[in-house]
Fold this protein.
Amino acid sequence: MDQKTHLVRMEQWAPIIKECCASGLSKRAWCMQNGIKVKQFYYWQRKLRDYSYDLAIAASSMTETPQPKFVELPGPVTSGAYNDSSDFIPSVIIKSNNATIEISNAASKELLSLIGGMLNVQ
């Protein structure tokens, strides 16, 4: 059976299996009442379950949260107005979860670019 035919048959069997499960009867009793072969019912139930599981795995792998990437930042500037940490007055403070980033208005474009990359800011 080719893939398209298989998918069409699964579409046909999905409401049948749903109806059986909602009936309150045992699957064997429901199949007997509706003229369906029990082996055929269980075969398609297994195929639909496997297909649903494969779809769920594929969807979860597409929505996984990327792991944070760490970037080494250059050390403190030794020349300029903020060479002593007690003199430092941040122009921008960014807080996220347990991390705080304080940035001076004297920060270089390269440093801001690295920080933006870490925060996925463009």
The chain has a mean pLDDT of 79.
